[in-house]
Specification:
This protein is 62% helix and 0% strand. It is mainly alpha-helical and 180 residues long.
Length: 180
C-alpha cells in the first residue's frame, strides 16, 4: 500500500470523521424538527453525510461546511417528499430521543409546536427551522435555500401565519413566548 502524503486520503478521511462527530447530532436534531420523524431524520442525516463525503475532496472552504451541510440537509428534506414511498404521513410517537431536542418541562408545548410545523408546507417549514431553530440570519438562510433575502422574509412571515393558523386556539396555551 502506498504511503499517502499529508493532505492525502487518510488526512481527508480523518477531517471528515472529525466533522461528522462534531456535527451529526446537531444535523439530526435539525432534520427531526424539519420532518417530525426520527427514522426519516436519521435517513436525511445519513444522506447529508454521504453527499458531503462524496464531495469532501472538492470542498475548498472547510470554514463553510456548516452552511453547506445545512444546505444539503434541507435539499434532501425537500426532495424526500417527491419520492413515492415517502408520501405516507408519520405521527410523532413519544420518544426518549425527543428529550434531547427540547427541554422536557415543555413536552406538551413541544408536541403542539411539532404538530403545527408538520402542517406547514415544506419550504416554509425549512425557512422557519433554519431561521428560528438554527437561529440563522436571513442572509444565511437565503444562501442555504438559494433564494433572495426577500423570499426568506416573506416565507418566514407566511410560515408564521401558517403556524398560528395551525395552532389556532392552542397558541394561547403555550406558556413560552414562542410564535405569538
Amino acid at each position: 500500500m502506498a504511503f499517502l502524503r499529508r493532505g492525502g486520503r487518510r488526512d481527508q478521511d480523518a477531517e471528515f470523521v472529525e466533522f461528522y462527530e462534531a456535527r451529526a447530532a446537531v444535523l439530526r436534531k435539525t432534520a427531526f424538527v424539519l420532518c417530525g420523524d426520527w427514522h426519516l431524520a436519521e435517513d436525511l442525516t445519513q444522506t447529508t453525510f454521504t453527499k458531503l463525503y462524496l464531495a469532501w475532496q472538492r470542498l475548498d472552504r472547510h470554514d463553510q461546511l456548516d452552511r453547506y451541510a445545512h444546505q444539503v440537509l434541507v435539499r434532501a428534506f425537500l426532495d424526500e417528499g417527491r419520492r413515492p414511498w415517502r408520501r405516507e404521513h408519520s405521527t410523532m410517537p413519544d420518544s426518549p430521543l425527543l428529550d434531547h431536542v427540547v427541554d422536557t418541562r415543555h413536552s406538551d408545548e413541544r408536541d403542539l409546536l411539532f404538530r403545527g410545523l408538520a402542517q406547514i408546507p415544506k419550504r416554509r417549514r425549512a425557512v422557519l427551522v433554519l431561521r428560528y431553530w438554527q437561529d440563522l440570519s436571513v442572509d444565511q438562510v437565503a444562501e442555504i435555500l438559494e433564494c433572495s433575502p426577500g423570499t426568506v422574509r416573506s416565507q418566514a412571515s407566511r410560515g408564521l401565519d401558517d403556524l398560528r393558523a395551525a395552532l389556532g386556539d392552542s397558541l394561547h396555551d403555550l406558556s413560552w413566548g414562542g410564535v405569538r
